[in-house]
Design goal:
With 124 residues, the chain is mainly alpha-helical. It is built from 6 helices and 2 strands. The termini are far apart. This is TnpV protein.
């Protein structure tokens, strides 16, 4: 019997009952930790961009891509927080004098920065 195209390129079949099922293995990928932003983007890809998700997964680049998105988002998040802190006058002195006010302002700054990062990087 003549070999199939799949067998010619080095593919193997696995017998399951009366059927031959191609054995598909994903290419090895370097494991990199992905954080909160990377996981959010992963959920976004799975839900709204299934083709992009599948292409990244089958090419073995998904983890690297998500780690890069996470790094970019984290850097942008930190830069935004620093800029907003300076613009609003949130200092260590305020933290010493009125910790509750400092906490309130910092939570507001973090929430605003998180929304900006989500719009610019995660859900874009």
């Amino acid at each position: 019997m003549e070999k199939t195209i799949f067998e010619k390129i080095g593919g193997e079949f696995e017998r399951q009952g009366d059927y031959l099922i191609p054995r598909l293995d994903l290419p090895p990928e370097k494991e990199q930790p992905i954080g909160v932003f990377g996981r959010r983007h992963l959920d976004y890809l799975k839900q709204y961009h299934k083709v992009t998700y599948t292409n990244l997964l089958t090419s073995g680049r998904l983890n690297t891509y998500l780690a890069d998105i996470n790094r970019q988002a984290q850097e942008r998040f930190e830069r935004l927080i620093e800029g907003m802190k300076q613009a609003q006058g949130i200092t260590e002195r305020l933290k010493e004098e009125n910790a509750l006010e400092w906490t309130k302002r910092m939570n507001n700054v973090r929430a605003c920065a998180r929304e900006i990062v989500n719009e610019e990087i995660i859900y874009a």
